[in-house]
Amino acid sequence: MARRRVARPNEQVESPVARRGPSLGFLLALPAHLLILVTVLVPSILVVWLSLTDWQPTQGIPWYAAPIIGLWNFSDLFNDQRFVGAVLRTIVIVVVSVLAELGLGLALALLFLDDWPWRKFAVAVIVLPMMIVPVDAANAFFMLFNERGPINQIIGLVVGHQYTFGWLADPDWALLPILLAEIWQWTPLMFLLLLTAFLSAPRNQWRAALSLGASPMRAFLRVLLPLTLPVILVAAIIRGIETFKIFDVIYILTRGGPGTATETISMFMYNGAFVYFRIGYIAAAALLVLVVVGTFCLALVRSLGRQA
Amino acid sequence: MRRTAGRFAVVIAMALALLPVFWLISTSFKPYDEWASAPPHWLPHHPTLQNYRIVFAPEAARSFATATAGTLDYKVSESAWRAFANSAIISTIATAISVAVGTLAAYGMLRFPKKHDSFALQLLSVRMFPPIAVVVPLVILFSALKLTDTHLGLILAYAAFTLPFSTWMIRSFIEEVPTELEGVARIYGMSQFGAFVHIVLPLIRGGLLATALFVFILNWSEFLLALTLTSGGIVTVTLQVANYVSASSGKLYGVQAAMGTISTIPVIVFGYLIQRHMVRGLTFGAVKR
Amino acid sequence: MTMKLVLRNISKAYEQKPAVRDLSLEVRTGEFLALLGPSGCGKSTTLNMLAGFEAPDHGEILVDGRSIVALPAHKRGIGLVLQDYAVFTRMSVRKNIDFGLAGRGLSRTARRARVDAFAERFELTDLLDRPAGSLNVSEMQRLALARTLATRPSLLLLDEPMSNLDAAVRMRLRQELKAIQLEFNQTVIYVTHDQGEAMTMADRIAVMRDGAIIQIGTPETIYNQPQELYVAQFIGEPPINLLPCEVREVHGRRVAFVPPFGELAIPGDIAVAGQVIAAIRPHHIHLLDTPDSMSVPLVVEDIEDLGANGVFHFRVGGVALSAMASVAAARVGDVVNVAPDMRAIALINHKTSQVILGQTAQ
Question: How much of chain B, in percent, has pLDDT values that exceed 70?
């Protein structure tokens, strides 16, 4: 190691750093690289190998001796209605959830722009759903949507007669409790983000707009929204990516059923790998998803990085 | 006029936010005959601690099983203490590793930026893949390394999967420390790493704690990895909750609710402690208050 | 004649702490009123209530005779220019000026003409198509003024608009603002903590402290006849001299003995006894070449050179005293003959801080 040199007062302190940079910088990032290598990179390479095989562990062959079938898995995937259905369903869930969370979060944030005595308490309560373990939240919704549960009871009061509907067993409606659980849990995040955005610097521009005679709607659309759009976009994208991976809620509420009515990509892959044990096939699906999502996200991150 | 309407809407929102949690807690205190009663009881008519006893004491579970449901799946006739212990151990150690590794990486990324270094963005993209896609080969890898169904396996996996959060969150905290401070320390003869340990770390103490709690919450709530990387030997709290649901076709409402209520308490407590930083964490440091 | 603006018994408190207390004010059309006071005195809160961003807890606000308290901010027709200008950073300068003209029934050509006119007025013509966020501070300030005045508001509120500008720009903008105010007969309420600015620009000054108006009057009145110690101290640069003195009975009359200078006769109808404070402005203290009956020799401790004139600092009985005179009058360390104009001394009851005997000289 080079002898430590005390820098003279006017000297750029950066230079000794840059000179010895590579070694310390490398060391600092090393543990992270190792961790990711073992748990993410190596498995990703495995996925590539497996996707070219038709490995099914139930057949008793070890994975490195699995029969190679080249790109057949991929062609099967494209023709697989179940897979396509899962992809479409996932996209629908992502779009509906994120839009609902944004819309509700926006509406809520607008309600919190001024101050009143119990405002802090209200924020704390509204933020509660974010602090619940997703599995427990799913559990709660499981009980809420029970045939003889409170939701049906309330509906019964509204329509006037007793209402027992098996939400989670109905192929047409099973997605609703799932969507509601997801939206319930994550709207508070959007709410907080939007509130933060609205309450920061732009407030004076908002006030200026009002005093110039713009109605609150016009001031919101022409002044506040353009200023907060970057934050909203980032939030929507991050939320969209996380929703794409949705699993816990589906597993607890429906396991993807009834049939495949609520099967998302994650559920499809879980079922395929851990229920049907068609590992090769699922590896191909995983690779496909990894590549598509990966390129999409990297492009997004790069464009966001340029903006910021 | 518009103001009172707004306040009313806020109250509705609060009620909706509370509803599922309220139902969970309320059901956890209901006796067996009120679990799926028609009409449903919003508040238990005869509140009891029975469900909590079943969750924690195997004897209570077994006697309950014979008395009412016939037999209970072995998974849920075990006490939940083990699940809590497992979750606590795994979450804590994984958090420590994740924060430590992430802090080093974040500092390295910020102070030693290399021109084509995209490691930071690579980390971010780790978070973008559906974990299920990585889990399948991970299971194979872990079984080859004899890491399946072990504490170590889950700890490593948890640490890796929360690394993007910890790295980016800590990075946003380190960014708030002016480089001049380390520069001054180096003028006085301190090494770069020394400046890191003695100057930067103390200044981001609060941020480190917030990140640690945040990552702990993520680990504690994690489900998919726990589900796939274990085969019954190790049970975390989330797994235990899922076991209650599947083991009885979801009919053990009261016990499910009790387990759910307790398992979510640490997350609620820590969550409110770091409420200010939740937004920062969930947006990878992009949005700060 | 109807007052342009009337505030009656306005009060507002935040969590038990009063920000504005029982404030009443009347402003004439075309008047330039300055709200002067240190930060925290309630002037910005008053402005917010006028603009409609906060509601008073009690009281009434009338513009042209009509109550506006229930009117939302965007319907009040009151122009507001804030300390940070709050220009719409993402819009062009042109769009900024044009923003307030929408929905007022102006034809497109009329709007464009007005935008061009005001841009020219405020020297923004070259910047019309630039994004407002790229402007420098003084350009932003001009833009904020331009876009607000373009809407011909019935009342113009300005919250410390010049505090971020350098001296030269400030002077130009002050002149421009004053010129426009006179030309449009614009009623202006100008919030500031800079007493020099208020003295230069305002028709009347309302001195505020702790949420109430202490004194309101023309700059001359405020300067020469302060009613309170606070006002006397706040106004005037360099600050007024304060000398503790004693009221005595001499030959049956009451006088205030102002050490070391002499006595000041107190008229019989004024009740005062014991300790009082004598206040005299530095430019009413003269440095004489030759001593006379009133003068006292003092050592010059320090001189603040202001160019032609200077502020001479003395010490009298442990109390600081300053005088304004030509810089050539003396040097540090010299002994000079210092004589106050006794008619320019005001006496202040130091317990109530009220002025009990105003100065008789101007």
Answer: 86
On whether both A279 and A229 belong to a single domain, the answer is yes
- Domain boundaries defined on chain B: 1-30+40-47, 81-282
Q: Is B27 exposed, middle or buried (0-12, 13-18, 19+ CB in 10 A)?
A: buried
Is A24 contained in some domain?
yes
Q: Inter-chain contact B188–A305, Cβ cutoff 8 Å? A: no
* Cα angle, residue A84 at apex, residues A80 and A87 outer, rounded to 5°: 145
Smallest Cβ–Cβ distance between A212 and the set C53, C72, C148 belongs to C148
Would you state the structure tokens that stand for residue B19, as one six-digit string? 């509803």
Statement to judge: residues A21 and A78 lie in one domain: no
How large is the average pLDDT for residues A161-172?
85
CATH class for the region spanning B81-282: mainly alpha
The answer to whether the Cβ–Cβ distance between A128 and B18 falls below 8 Å is: yes
Q: Are residues A131 and A185 in the same domain?
A: yes
For residue A64, being part of any structural domain is answered with no
The neighbour count for residue A273, using CB atoms within 10 Å, is 24
Mean pLDDT of C162-171: 82
Structure tokens that stand for A126 in this block = 């509204």
Which residues pair with residue C286 across a beta bridge? C339
Q: Give the up-direction half-sphere exposure of residue A263: CA atoms within 13 A in the CB hemisphere.
A: 17
Contacts of A110 (CB under 8 A, 6+ apart): A198
Q: Provide the 10 A C-beta neighbour count for residue B266.
A: 20
C8 within 8 A of C62, measured Cβ to Cβ: yes
- Of A220, A231, A243, nearest to A134 (Cα)? A243
- Using CA coordinates, name the residue in chain A closest to B122: A298
Judged against a pLDDT cut of 70, whether residue C111 lies above it is answered with: yes
Inform me whether the C-beta atom of residue A225 falls under 8 Å from chain C C-beta atoms.
no
**Distance between CA atoms of residues B85 and B82, nearest Å:** 5
Q: What is the DSSP string of C276-343?
A: EEEEE-GGGEEEESS--TT-EEEE--EEEE-SSEEEEEEEETTEEEEEEEEGGG--TT-EEEEEE-GG
Q: Quick check: helix, strand or coil at residue A95?
A: helix
Residue A95 belongs to domain with CATH number: 1.10.3720.10
Whether residue A60 is contained in a domain is answered as: no
User: Is C86 in Cβ contact with A205 (below 8 Å)?
Assistant: yes
Residue of A nearest to B21 (CA): A140
Mark yes or no for CB contact A210/C74 under 8 Å: yes
Chain segment A69-128, per-residue pLDDT in tens: 878 888 888 888 889 999 999 999 999 999 999 999 999 998 888 777 888 899 999 999
Residue in B129, B152, B229 to test binding to A, most A beta-carbons within 10 Å: B129
CB contact under 8 A, B112 and A24: yes
d(CA C85, CA C161): 7
Structural domains of chain C in order of their starting residue, each with its CATH number: 5-228 (3.40.50.300), 241-357 (2.40.50.140)
Residue A102 lies in a domain: yes
From C154's Cα to the closest Cα of chain A, the distance in A is 12
Q: Write down the pTM of the prediction.
A: 0.74
Q: Is the peptide bond before A258 cis (omega within 30 degrees of 0)?
A: yes
Residue A41 is part of which domain span?
14-51
Q: Could you report the per-residue pLDDT of C129-156, keeping only the tens digit for each? A: 888 888 888 888 889 989 999 998 989 9
Residues of B in contact with A265 (CB under 8 A): 130, 132
* Tally of domains in chain A: 2
Same domain? For A138 and A173 the reply is yes
